[in-house]
Write a structure and sequence with these properties.
Gyrase A, domain 2; alpha+beta; about 240 residues; four-stranded antiparallel β-sheet; Elongation Factor Tu (Ef-tu), domain 3; about 25% strand; six-stranded antiparallel beta barrel
């Protein structure tokens, strides 16, 4: 799979395909078999970095030609490959969850903020259990945390302790330093000490810190993505 991302993604991809890529003809979530530089691929308009773009799925034998064509087509815009850390940083900005960090056997979809993605009209393993949890108060919630101070020597990686009013309430699951914000950013789970519901009032009323290298760094908490919460970059 080759992933093309960024504000110029539609412009660049249009140079190597005859397919209409306009928002009306190829809306977000749409999938279609198209030709890119004469090569057959399946294009999906989805994103894991919070920017306009497409995933191009195809046989391993054809994707090198697709890659080369996109690099050539995007030369005027300064296109270049993006590394793993850049991609990870952008998905944390958008609060996109990742398996093995935000998503594991220790969390359910409601705690992870993914209840909206459950297809209740379908049958699946674990449905009965999820139905029993559907309307229950959440005792654990995933949030975005932004450090209120910037220190160039500080790096958040995940698994840093989170404190609320001086009491341990959770841990970070992922961390990064996004140039978009200019401050360290993390995703993490928060609980109440001793148990109890973690609602919006509880989240907003406390003073938070993240412990890193023996220092408690002040942090703000949000249930919304820190970058483009209305998805304006994605749905254009």
């Amino acid at each position: 799979m080759v992933s093309l991302r960024g504000p110029a993604a539609r412009t660049i991809l249009s140079r190597v395909t005859a397919t209409d890529l306009s928002n009306a003809a190829f809306p977000f979530g749409h999938s279609a078999e198209i030709q890119v530089a004469g090569q057959p691929v399946r294009a999906l308009r989805v994103t894991y970095v919070g920017e306009l773009g497409w995933e191009l799925h195809g046989a391993a034998a054809v994707l090198p030609a697709v890659w080369d064509a996109l690099l050539a087509a995007g030369a005027p815009e300064g296109i270049r490959p993006a590394g793993t850390y850049a991609i990870n940083t952008m998905r944390i900005e958008k609060a996109y969850r990742a398996f093995g960090t935000e998503l594991s056997v220790d969390e359910n979809p409601f705690q992870a903020g993914l209840g909206f993605a459950i297809a209740w009209t379908k049958e699946f393993l674990g449905k009965e259990k999820l139905l029993s949890l559907k309307d229950q108060p959440l005792t654990k919630r995933l949030v975005s945390l932004t450090l209120e101070v910037t220190d160039p020597t500080l790096t958040l990686w995940g698994n840093e302790p989170i404190f609320r009013d001086g009491k341990l309430v959770g841990y970070t699951s992922s961390g990064c330093f996004p140039p978009t914000l200019g401050k360290q950013l993390a995703l993490g789970y928060i609980k109440r000490p001793g148990g109890g519901p973690v609602d919006k009032a509880y989240l907003k009323s406390g003073a938070y810190t993240i412990l890193q290298d023996g220092i408690h760094w002040p942090a703000s908490v949000s249930l919304q993505p820190r970058v483009d919460p209305k998805r304006e970059r994605i749905l254009v």
